[in-house]
Amino acid sequence: MKINLSTLLLIIIFTLQSCGEEKQKAIEKKEPQKITELKTDSEEEYITSFCNFAVIVDKDGYVNIREKESANSKIIGKIKSGEAVFIFEDLDTDWLNITFGDDEKSGYIHRSRIKYIKDLEKIASVDSHNYKAIFHLNNIDIDIETDDFDYESNKKYFSETAKEDFIIKKYKDLEMWGTDGTIPKSYYKSITVKIGNQEIEIPKKDIQDLFNPNNDYTECYYDKVNNSIYIHLSNSDGAGSYVALFKIENGVYKGRQVEIPF
Predict the structure, then answer these.
(1) N or C: which end of the chain has fewer CB within 10 A?
(2) Is residue 86 part of a domain?
C-alpha cells in the first residue's frame, strides 16, 4: 500500500497532537503545588517604616537642639545622650526635625547625633496573634496581652471636652489614642518585661489610653551600650494611627512617648 507525502504529513501531525493532549491531561491530574507566601523585604521595611524614634548619641553627653537647620542657628534646648526622640520625617538631609519636652516643642538636631531605634539589636518575636505577643533575647522576655474592649462595662468612663473647633473624647479623663473618636475595639491588658528574675510591668496608667493595638506591628529592641529595652508600638490605621515607645533602662521603667506618625 502506497502512502503519498501529504497523507504521511497528516498522520505525523495527528500523532503529535494526540501526544500533546495526553500529556496535558496527565499534568492536570497532578496535585497542585502549594505556594507558601513569604514576607518580602519591602513588607518588612513597611512594618518598621513608622519606627522613627531614635536615641541621642553624643560624646559630649548631650546634643544641642537648633531652631533651624543650621549649626549657626539659635540653640533652643538640649537632650541628654541615651534619651529617645521622634523624627518627623527623614528626608536624607543633615538636619532632622524632632519633638522634645513635655510641651512637645519642635527643633532640629544633626543626623550624626542620633541612632535609630530600629538599628539597635532586635529582640525576636516568638509568638504573635490577636491577643498576645511574646519577645525573647538572652535573659529578656517581653509579654504583651491585649483583649476585646467591653464598652458597656466602661462607658461611664468616657467624656467629651471642647478644644478649639472640635470635640475631644476622653477615657478616664485621658485623651484616647487609636480611635479617632469612635468606640475602641480592643485594648492593652498588660505589658510585662522580665530580665532574669526581675519583673517590670508597664504601669496601667501608661497603657489604659492606648486602644486598637496591632500585635503584628509591635517590635522590641535592646541597646547594649545604655542597657536599655525599647518596646515600639504601631497601632490603629487611618486618622487614628499612632506610634508609642516604652523605655526600660537598667531594669527601671523610664516612661513612654506617643506620637502621630504623619
Answers:
(1) N
(2) yes
Query: Which contacts qualify for 59-64: CB closer than 8 Å, 24 or more apart?
Result: 63/109, 63/110, 63/113, 63/114, 64/109
Of 91, 42, 94, nearest in space to 66 by CA: 94
Write the pLDDT tens digit of every residue in 233-260. 999 877 789 999 999 999 999 999 999 8
Residue 58 forms part of a structural domain: yes
- Regarding pTM above 0.85, the answer is no
Its domain, for residue 180, covers: 121-259
Distance CA 262, CA 88 (A): 7
Residues 6+ apart with CB under 8 A from 250: 227, 228
Inside any domain, residue 79: yes
C-alpha cell at 253: 521603667
